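User: I'm designing a mutation panel for Fe2OG dioxygenase domain-containing protein and want to avoid disrupting the core. Could you give me a predicted structure to guide residue selection? Please restate the sequence first so the numbering is unambiguous.

Assistant: Good idea. Sequence first, for numbering, then the predicted C-alpha cells:
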Amino acid sequence: MTLSKNLEKKIAKKVKRCQLLIEKDAGITFSDEPTKLIAICNAGLSTGLQQEALLKEALQHGTIQQVLFPPGKSYCFLQCSSITEADAIYTALNGLCTLGQDGAVLLLAFCNALPAYHDDPWNAVRPDGLILERDFIDETMEQALLEAVQISEDTDQPDTEPNKTLKHRKVKHFGYEFVYGSNNVDRTMPLERKIPSVCGKLWQKLQQLHPHLRWHVPDQLTVNQYEPGQGIPPHVDTHSAFDDPILSLSLGSDVVMEFKQPSSGKAVCVDLPSRSLLIMSGESRYDWTHGITPRKMDTIPAPNGGLTVRKRQLRVSLTFRKLLPNDQCGCTFPRLCDTAQQSVSNQASLLASHAAQVEAQNVHRVYNEIAKHFSDTRHSPWPRVEAFVRSLSAGDVLLDVGCGNGKYLASSECSVLLGCDRSDRLLQVCIERGFNVLQCDCLAVPFRDESVDACISIAVIHHLATDERRQRAISEMIRVLRPGGRALIYVWAKNQEANAKKSSYLRQNKQNNKPPAEDEAETPPDTQPVQLERVSGAGDCTLPVHTNRTQFQHQDLLVPWKLRSSESTEKATFLRYYHVFEEHELEKLCLASGGDSIVLLESYYDQGNWCVVLQKKAN
C-alpha cells in the first residue's frame, strides 16, 4: 500500500511538528536523507506502544540493531543494520502502520543520532552477585520437578491448601506461604506441605558449582505458572524476611527478566533459558528489583546480531528462599532495605539535630545550583495567589517571603511589592527584572515589627526540616504584619488526590491518567521499594527519595530535580528536602505560631497544596 500525494503532504506536516518537539526535548537533529536511525515520532512508552509489537512489524522489512524507548516519552527509536533496510522500514511503516495511540498511524523520520538516555539493557554490566547457570538440570530432572510441584488445574491435595490463582498467574507455596503485596511470609503459620525431597539433588550440585556462596538449605518455595502474556511487577524480596541468596529455577520455556537499580536508573535484561538456575546474591539480591513484563513476546538478541522477537510459552518458575531467624537484615544496601527503612520513622530526632545542615545541603545549595532552570519553569503565577496580591489597597506594602524568581512581584502596580529569598542566584533574576528584593533567611526577616500590610509565603515553609523551624518562620511573618494585615501561605500537600481529583503534579505523568494494570494491584504503594539517601554532613540521617509525579508515601523526603548541563547530554540529579503536609497540619501550625494574635480567615486545597489565609488581630 502506498500513500496518495495529498496524504503524504499531511503526514509530512505532522512529522515536522513532532520533529520540532523531539529536537527540543531529546536534543537530537533530523535528516532529510535516509540514515540507519529512525525516530517513531508519535508513539512510545507513554502512549502504550510495545517494543515487541513494533519489532514484529519492522523486522518484516529489515534487521534491527537496537531499540530505544525513552522512559515516559511519546516517541522511540530504531537503529537499523543498514541505510537500505532503514529506508525499507520507513517506506513500509510511515503513515501506514496503525500501532499509534488509539489506532493512529505511526509517523517516522530519519535522525542523525540517538539521544543519550541509558545503556542498552542487553549489553549493560550485570549487577554483582547475579549468576546464571544454564542447563543446571536435564530434561529428566525438569519433568521430575514438574510432577513433584503439581501446579496443574487437576491437582487434588485435600490435606493442604489448594493452588492459588492470582490475577495474572497460578501460584503454589511450600514450607511457608509467600504473601504478595508485602513480599513476606508469616513464619508463625508454616504449611504442612514441605519442599519436595527431589529438590535435595539441586543443593548438592549448587554447592559443588559455587562453594564460595553463603550456603543454606531453603525452607520456602514458591511455584509460579506463567501463561504467555502474564508477568510479575518489579520487586525486591523483603530483606528482613529472607537470607542471601535467592534462587530461581526456570522450567518449561524461556523468558526475559528485567533488573533495575532505582538509585542509578540502570537496567539489565537477562534471558532465562528453560532448565537454567538464576542466583541472586549480594548487590543483585538487595539493591536491584527484578520483574517480568506481562507480554506475549520477548525482544531478545538475534544469533547473528541485532534483535529479534520470540513468542512466550507456558513457563513454571521455582523460587527458593531461606527465612531469616530474627526478622532483621544486616546487609550493606540500605536503599531498598525494609530494616533500614524502619529506621526512617526514627529519623525525627536525627532530622531535628541536623535540620540546619539538611536545609543547607538539600535546599539552599540545590536552589542555587538549579536557579536558572528552576526560574525558566516558574513563569505563570497561580491564579489565587495573584488574586490575593491584587486585592491589596493602593499604597499597601507586601512582603513575599521566599520570592524565588519574583513571579508575584509584578502582580500589582498600585502596591509596594518587596521580596526576600535565601538564594543569591534567584535574587539575581529578580534584580535583572527590576524588582525590589533583599537576601535573608525566612527564620530571621530583617523588617521592623508591624511594618508591612501583607505577606505571602508560597512553597517555602515545606522546605524547613522541623516543626519548630516551620513555626518560627510563620511567627516571623506574623511579627512583621501590621494589625489587620493578612498573610497567604502555600505548602505542598502529602495527598495529591484530594477531592478525588489528581493534582496537576500527578497528571503530568501520563501513566497516572490510565487505569492501573492488574499486576500493579499486587504491590501496594506502601510496599514499593524505597530508595534512601544519607544527607551529606548529617551523620546517620537518611531520607527516602520520592519518585517524581507519584503520590507521596512519606512526609519528610527528598524530591529529585533533574538538570542537563550544557557540557553533557546526561542529566544531573539534585535532591531537595521537603516536608509535605497532612490535612489541617498547616492550620494547627499557624495557630501555634500566632496564638491569640491571629485569626484564620480561610483554609483551602489548591492544585496539590494546602493553603491558609490568616489575619493579625487589631490591638
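For picking mutation sites, this is relevant: The longest helix spans residues 5-26. The first strand starts at residue 30 and ends at 31.
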